[in-house]
Amino acid sequence: MNNGPLSGVRVTEFTSAWAGPYATCLLGFLGAEVIKVESRKRLDHSRFTSFTTSTTFSGPDESPVFNNLNLNKLSVCLNLSQPKAVEIAKRLAGASDVVVENMRPGVIARLGLGYEAVKEVKADIIYLSSSACGQTGPDRENVGYAPNFAGAAGLSYVTGYPDWPPSELSGAVDLRSATTAAFAILVALLYRQRTGEGQYIDLSSQEAIAILNAGALMDFLMNQRVRTRAGNRHDTMAPHNCYRCRGQDTWISIAVADDQEWRALCGVIGRPELTQDERFSTAEARWKHQEAADQIVGEWTKDQSDYEAMHKLQAAGIAATPSLSNKALFEDPHLRERQVFLQVSHPVLGKDWVIAPPWRLSETPASVRSRSPLLGEHSQSVLEELLGMSREEIRRLEEEQVVY
Amino acid sequence: MGFKALAGVRVLEYGRGISAAYCSKLIADLGAEVIHLELPGRGDDTRRLPPFAGDAPHEEKSGLFLFLNTNKLGVTLNPRLPVGQEIFRRLVSTVDVVVEDWPPGHLEEMGLGYHDLRRLNPGLVMASISPFGRTGPYKDYKAHGLNISHVSGQGYMLPLPSPHLDRAPVKIGGNCTDYDSGQTTAVAILAALYSQHITGKGQLIEVSQQEAVLALQRVENVVFANGGEVLTRKGPEADHTITQMFLCKDGWVISVTVLDHQKQALAKLAESGEGPAQRSGEDSPEVWRERLAGWMSEHTTEEVCAKAQSLNCPMSPISSPEDVARSKQMNARGFFAEIQHPIAGKLNIPARLCHFSKTPFELERAAPLLGEHNEIIYRQRLGYGAKELRALKDTGVI
Predict the structure, then answer these.
(1) Whole-prediction pTM value?
(2) Burial letters for B39-73: b for 16+ Cβ neighbours within 10 Å, e otherwise?
(3) ipTM reported for the complex surpasses 0.95
């Protein structure tokens, strides 16, 4: 038991990669017990390769990617190509409140672990399937990773420079889909808490991401306008851009919301006469002349360090922040003070940095209680304690490569 | 009409930005009652943001506002006035949840902070969203979506791949980072409600927008801490073959080939008869890619994706907003829903972010007009008389 708000909730997952595992990782942060069913027969690819750095790992327990996405979990190895393993997995699911899977649509049902099968052993189960395009519709069989559904969902198209191709969007898009999945599971948990009923949730990552581009979609639906990439620009605010600072690849983002902030900006950059300049006298005028305004602001920022510029501008009430690399984030004093980077001890990785849960709850704190599990680390303890199997039986199943 | 998942949950939303509005929208769309407070006469800033129906700026026609406020009740209230504060407190004692995204200290100054409100309502779950959280050296700093995108590690990595590092990094498109913090907050609110149902105890949830977005990029963001490598928007230079974009006759497609069988599928696509010949031993990856790209440039994105997917190769179009609106897949699944708005007219709205078997998303009510539900809430819920209401209106309280 722990202090999280979902303490007492048990989740069994049949997920791999990023979107499925992070959905349950969020529930784990909030106190749920998460049992990851995996197998060395079909290894979760985040255990052997990193998309972000194109590195591969020589063993399944060497991946910092896996570690960061599977904190607080238990790992049970079951080789689901064997009927006996499916039976055991079904008993695990039956002892859970929530089941999550992110295989290609249809696969888990063919394995005998679909919603209907699990419902037979646990009538009020909450069961979420996460896939690229959803369980129904003409494209349901399509496979895809984060860059695929970010593209199909329309988010890539609106990210980037107006005069350059769309931007790829990578792993963070998976984690957005995962956040939607965690939200949906919680909705179902609240419903079950009130009515006693479970249900099935079909989550399409493509849809979960498309809704994050609602503004551009509304523009097309209402006005048939196809919005494209706008760099750092805003619909009404100006200046609203990212400007070069002193140093290599160093930038500051600045957004001016109203006349008062514009006057303050003119003061900070030592150009008080601009407050009299008609080109910038109203929000509309500034927006129309934003290229001129950008040039003036950029003249000032290029001699500042990003942090100096932020502190000066913020002191004058202007929204300004550096564009931070992973290095800069790690060294940032604010994030240090808020302990956003946490170190966990891992038997293979040693001291490994991970990111803290994204909320502070005053009474039932979210927490990182343990590192990610080694492959099959909890096979024996979970099968013994939860399903009452004997050591002898488990050993036999290991020999038969059922527990594998 | 389906059953409502969150029926009976009552939420008070007092926000200034998109984050709180999106957070409570998610909850409203699943059946909770959300009372959205707006300042009298002025309303939310999003009412003045495009796109506008028919391109005509109008406070009831902003597509952004209309999207963010479906299924909500709208009331006006000025909590800067003492009478407004009194009404705010009375409203708080009738709800389970308060969501706000004002700068830290704003509500406390008016005597409406969590510690004041929980005295009125001990089971209250309150969520406070701010750019940098409520502690730390930047706690009072301002940030809009642009700034959050850049201060979270997200902007620095975009666009990907970037043509030249001497061009400024860009924010992620649209209002994505605001939605991110709204959605992240909604997760914690529901978890807190789950626990509140068991223990009767409420709590304060604090969300930093910077951390909400930074956590989504958690894998990339720890790479320096763990191995000393600075990732940039140039992408992993060593290996471009995992993710590749290709220009087809009518737009872009993107392939991701991680596993061996997927790489082989991409190769098969190249040799599939219509495509260029199989990559021979002496072809460099560049030559091979060029030939594949040449084949794609003569076909549509739909043709290329259909062929690739039939070979189990993860390939998708880079869809424009129009492509998404016309998507056969998303329309077959009822992603968009139609709603009638008294001033903006008939609208199609992206409405379903997933499918629940028992408690579907329902678009029951269009976004409220400014102050549309003042009567219902103030008269029926709080018991103010007609005369009192008029006085409150005349004095600018509502």
Answers:
(1) 0.97
(2) bbeebbbbbbbbbbbeeeeebbbbbbbbbbbbbbb
(3) yes
